[in-house]
Amino acid sequence: MTEESRRAVEEMRILVVDDSRLSRNLIGKFLLKAGFNNIVVAESAAEAFGILGLDNPADDPQEIDLILMDIIMKDMDGIEATRRIKQNERLRNIPIVMVTGSEKNETFEEAFTAGAGDYISKPIDKMELRMRVSSALKLKRETDLRKKRERELELLSSLDGLIGIANRRVLDSTLEKEWKLAQRNSRPISLMMIDIDYFKQYNDHYGHQGGDYCLKKVGRAINGVPGRPGDLVARYGGDEFAVVLPDTGASSARALAQLIQTTVAKLELPHEKSKIGAFVTVSIGLATSMLNEIKSDSLEALFKRADTALFNVKKAGRNQVMTA
């Protein structure tokens, strides 16, 4: 273990749950001497649940990395407390080491079935305590780092590599999910297809680096307009973007489309090869499936209407919003 890893492990937070003050003090003393300085104590399962936010997560629960749980306690024994903790999705990855004076195999079997990962026998040997705690915390840290890497990889796989907004894969899955919700709840849904005007000419004139710069600026500007958590801006491909607007009717969607146009125009990206102005502009095709038609409509039809509206904008001279 590197020095950095060792320090990280020693700073991890340990919760000691024991109804005996003598045992709590002894375990705390051994842990401090072993270099573990972040210790929280509870004298009952109920107090431990409060620290963990088991029954009320809104109470700002503490982040705990390891639990040392006494098996024999008055109000609720350690096995039942472990079972309760492991049933909670938010807490189930916290390792639990049982502390016990029992030598019965059935007790160990019950503890492991409940979710304990290890045990320490009483009377506690400080060297054994240090080794088992170090091992459990090291494994917890490795698990946390692996999950963090997995989340980062998942995020990267969902983003467009150039612009950093949602990619086509996320667009397709989000559209399908939101369409089903709209149908189930009889709510409107709107879809925008957005195209950068005369982008081929822009790319030819300013080069691929210039084209990439334009895509980044425009894509991120569009991404900053829709403000609700359920809205999605994605790169559809090339110089096209899509915006999914759940629970949004035609008039609200049109107002948002016009705001996107204004936002892009304010970038004032020079476009010497545009036939409609000195700066980069966008064309937007918009389609909405309304309350009275959502049940009989289809996602494919909605998509086709938005695409047709975009095609009509281009025919009409670009730099406009058209609704199918």
TrEMBL record:
Organism the protein comes from: hydrothermal vent metagenome
Gene Ontology terms describing biological process: cell adhesion involved in single-species biofilm formation; negative regulation of bacterial-type flagellum-dependent cell motility; phosphorelay signal transduction system
Name of the protein this chain belongs to: Uncharacterized protein
Lineage: unclassified sequences, metagenomes, ecological metagenomes
SUPFAM superfamilies: CheY-like, Nucleotide cyclase
GO molecular function terms attached to this record: diguanylate cyclase activity
InterPro entries, per database record: CheY-like_superfamily, Diguanylate_Cyclase, GGDEF_dom, Nucleotide_cyclase, Rev_trsase/Diguanyl_cyclase, Sig_transdc_resp-reg_receiver
GO cellular component: plasma membrane
Domain GGDEF: 187-324
NCBIfam families: GGDEF (TIGR00254)
Domain Response regulatory: from-to ranges: 13-137
